[in-house]
């Protein structure tokens, strides 16, 4: 979808294509190597977390199945780490990939929403797995802090997804509403992501205390050490995602010679190109301001919206 | 220290005093009421977390003491929630209090560092309590994910405190080093704070599973429900602190008529007044830039430094 096209005629550009010169400009992104290094690290650590979770349930635990036994429970950590941690983490930073900066905003929003929708579905299936397991074994549901915080996170995540879909992806929400909700959308997205990681660490703690009896967790059995390491990996993954998503220099840069790449697809998407010339990656469709007076306020809000316009 | 002085002569101002007009300007801070509401909420929820922790250990658990028994262990949650959560949270937002914006930066740094130092001391004593308890009862140390993440957080917090002290509080670090380290300082401060909250949630989980046997945690005993609620309060406290500290409109505003309030106390502190006129709460002593060329880069870096200059 995002090939590096070398066609010279502007007319032949796709909404996601590049001139060689533009590709060269990307390479000059401030701290591009640092970004790539951290991105690769995040992908590696996230991928490793998924692998560690699979090794945990397949090697140290009972394996996977869907029969109401521990085999079904084991889908819970696998789906949570794969969807709710790894895929959500990637969804959070997808706007920061410099080779997507010339893609249409609608495409990027669809990818962001799509990844989050996949993560939400996996999170919901992971809940079904653990409720099924509890019910089959007559274990009460929803008594632990892990379950309270985890269910809250899933509900907030689904609300966030619906809000994002109706307000930012569909074209009908007024600009003022988008401007109002964007900081909340970004904040609550990162808050839920952090809460999910905290919940995973609680879940690992719970499961190891319940499962490791002989030898006990406190005697440093290999499974305990291995799964503690999984917990650290997930924490490091979260830390990398938070660093990547909060660096202002890794936003789409202002481009003095930028042109309106997207043929106008109708308001408000069509406004993006011209806004990008003025305000970096400021997206008018998401960040149009109310008519406050003070210049300082306007500047700050524009900076903020620009910095945060990862939706 | 920060009284609202009404003296009219500029010469009579303390480094932390206000003219009536300046006090009026603070009231016009963008979203001042919202800020106050969230600040009071954060203080309330944080205070409630400490009270809940005390009720937990004094009413539901064995109480407090320093004798190697559970009484000594109980200092662990009390000191962690009081110092490592509540006081650290306040230390994080102390630069955002608008009535401190005219105080000297050195004073605010000292308060920030002082609060963090108190939190670090309480965190260290809380570790001594739990190690003492384990050793007296022959319970192994450092086997759980809670202990791995928690000790990492304490070590990072102490390193962060030392880095802050030597680089930002003492006057000798070169400006370029401060500019380089400030974003890392802010990021790692918030990362450690979030990690501490995750660790507390793991600790609550661990303790409730270990302690609630008859009736078991899974039967919804009052202590389980009460302490789960404590966990939620701590999470909400963290969420409020994160919201407050990431709102750009609650930074010290640019003041067109601002004057150099602090009599020059020697470089680099004395530079602040004039920098404030140009870059809002940009603090030259912390954020002086290297001599990069690109205007965009400069703007972004200044914005970032201004936005982040909570040290």
UniProtKB/TrEMBL annotation, chains A, B:
Keywords recorded for this protein, A-Z: Cell membrane, Electron transport, Heme, Iron, Membrane, Metal-binding, Oxidoreductase, Translocase, Transmembrane, Transmembrane helix, Transport
Cofactor: heme b
Keyword Iron part of the UniProt annotation: yes
Region (Disordered): 283-311
Membrane association type: Multi-pass membrane protein
Subcellular location: Apical cell membrane
Main subcellular location of this protein, as a coarse class: membrane
Domain spans labelled Cytochrome b561: 41-246
Listed GO CC annotations: apical plasma membrane; lysosomal membrane
GO MF: metal ion binding; transmembrane ascorbate ferrireductase activity
Documented EC number(s): 7.2.1.3
Reactions performed catalytically: Fe(3+)(out) + L-ascorbate(in) = monodehydro-L-ascorbate radical(in) + Fe(2+)(out) + H(+); monodehydro-L-ascorbate radical(out) + L-ascorbate(in) = monodehydro-L-ascorbate radical(in) + L-ascorbate(out); Cu(2+)(out) + L-ascorbate(in) = Cu(+)(out) + monodehydro-L-ascorbate radical(in) + H(+)
Transmembrane segments: 35-58, 78-99, 111-131, 151-172, 184-205, 225-245
Statement: the UniProt record of this protein carries the keyword Iron: yes
Pfam families: Cytochrom_B561
Quaternary context: Homodimer.
Protein name: Plasma membrane ascorbate-dependent reductase CYBRD1
Organism: Neophocaena asiaeorientalis asiaeorientalis
Lineage of source species: Eukaryota, Metazoa, Chordata, Craniata, Vertebrata
């Amino acid at each position: 979808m995002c090939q590096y096209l070398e066609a010279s005629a502007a007319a032949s550009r796709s909404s996601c294509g590049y001139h060689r010169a533009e590709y060269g400009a990307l390479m000059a992104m401030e701290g591009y190597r640092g970004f790539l290094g951290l991105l690769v690290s995040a992908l590696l650590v996230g991928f490793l977390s998924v692998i560690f979770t699979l090794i945990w349930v397949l090697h140290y635990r009972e394996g996977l199945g869907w029969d109401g036994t521990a085999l079904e429970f084991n889908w819970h950590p696998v789906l949570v780490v794969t969807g709710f941690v790894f895929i959500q983490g990637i969804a959070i930073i997808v706007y920061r990939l410099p080779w997507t900066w010339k893609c249409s905003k609608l495409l990027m929003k669809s990818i962001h929403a799509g990844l989050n929708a996949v993560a939400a579905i996996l999170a919901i299936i992971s809940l079904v797995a653990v409720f099924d397991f509890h019910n089959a074994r007559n274990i009460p549901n929803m008594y632990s802090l892990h379950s309270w915080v985890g269910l809250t996170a899933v509900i907030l995540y689904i609300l966030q997804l619906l809000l994002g879909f109706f307000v930012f992806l569909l074209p009908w929400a007024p600009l003022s509403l988008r401007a109002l909700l964007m900081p909340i959308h970004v904040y609550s997205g990162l808050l839920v992501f952090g809460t999910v990681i905290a919940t995973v660490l609680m879940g690992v703690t719970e499961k190891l205390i319940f499962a490791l009896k002989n030898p006990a967790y406190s005697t440093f059995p290999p499974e305990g050490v291995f799964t503690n390491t999984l917990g650290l990996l997930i924490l490091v993954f979260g830390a990398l995602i938070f660093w990547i998503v909060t660096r202002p220099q890794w936003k789409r840069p202002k481009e003095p010679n930028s042109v309106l790449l997207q043929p106008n697809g109708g308001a408000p998407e069509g406004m993006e190109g011209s806004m990008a010339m003025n305000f970096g990656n400021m997206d008018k469709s998401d960040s149009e301001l109310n008519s406050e007076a003070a210049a300082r306020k306007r500047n700050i809000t524009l900076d903020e919206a620009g910095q945060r316009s990862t939706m």
